[in-house]
Specification:
Elements (H helix, E strand, L loop, with lengths): L2 H5 L13 H4 L3 H15 L1 H11 L4 H29 L5 H12 L12 H25 L3 H32 L3 H13 L4 H14 L1 H4 L2 H17 L3 H9 L6 H20 L1
Helix pairs in contact: 3-5, 3-10, 3-12, 4-5, 5-8, 6-10, 7-8, 7-9, 7-12, 7-13
């Protein structure tokens, strides 16, 4: 094990006995936020296999995906699951997750990746930006100290993952001579997809177990999704998000500055859809 891997946090670093149950027990929105995140993170091995197949032959990338990215993403899922099971022990996590995974697996296809390795790395930068932003927002959305600690740890991991994907993007961009216009198209499209069908899928399957009487009501589900989105949107701090999003575009400073306000408005629309 490398020194970096040895230094990485583990679930044992979290003291779930310290969860302030009086803060979270009645917070249904936080329940859905934490539980949906636990589902999506727990299914990250599906994406890892696709990416390893896509980047076959690039040992640096595939080794990092296999030995660092996948274990850390799966640990996020286990830690979030542990939090949910400590805070809301009446929720039967496993069968709800299995139901979710059956549908979620249909979204994870190699053919949905970007058409070149450079563009896929730029898309990965957007995804890591989105997840870092999401967990930072979750850390601000509650005062419960164990969840704040957990969400902050995951956000830091996502920033670290972003740095790796960005480095690989630069290498492939130079190899493929991909122009800024194509990178912009990928970044814009993937940003619009940040609030994706993945989250909606997770909410549906959680609701079927948590609130079966309401889960068949599409209006109720839409209201739930809107409530969850508003919590994230209200707690966004766009500064670092914008820098991460625009970095693969390698824009002149004056152009980057001019785009900050419209991109900030765009991000608000993404999370409020």
């Amino acid at each position: 094990m490398t020194a970096t891997a040895a230094a990485h946090w583990t679930i044992d670093d979290l003291d779930f006995s310290r969860i302030a149950l009086d803060v979270v027990r009645e917070d249904e929105t936080l329940f859905y936020l934490a539980c949906s995140a636990s589902f999506i993170e727990s299914g990250s091995d599906l994406y890892t296999r696709n990416l390893i197949d896509y980047f076959e032959g690039d040992e640096e990338v595939t080794q990092w995906l296999r030995e660092h990215w996948e274990p850390e993403e799966l640990q996020h899922g286990r830690a979030l699951r542990a939090y949910v099971e400590h805070a809301w022990p009446e929720f039967d996590w496993e069968p709800a997750y299995r139901s979710f995974l059956e549908e979620y697996a249909t979204y994870c296809k190699v053919e949905l990746l970007a058409p070149s390795r450079a563009l896929e790395m730029s898309a990965r930068c957007v995804v890591e930006t989105g997840t870092a932003t999401y967990y930072r927002a979750l850390a601000r959305a509650t005062t419960e100290p164990v969840f704040v600690d957990l969400a902050s740890r995951i956000a830091a991991d996502e920033v670290s993952h972003y740095k790796h994907f960005y480095r690989y993007f630069r290498r492939y961009r130079d190899q493929e001579q991909v122009g800024r216009a194509r990178v912009f198209g990928t970044v814009a499209r993937r940003t619009w997809e940040l609030k994706s069908e993945d989250a909606d899928c997770a909410l549906r399957h959680i609701a079927r177990s948590r609130h079966p009487a309401q889960a068949a009501d599409r209006a109720w589900l839409r209201a739930l999704g809107s409530r969850v989105s508003r919590v994230v949107s209200r707690n966004l701090h766009p500064g670092s998000t914008l820098k991460m999003l625009m970095r693969p575009l390698d824009l002149p400073p004056r152009v980057e500055n001019a785009l900050q306000v419209p991109i900030e408005h765009f991000m608000q629309r993404v999370f409020l859809r």
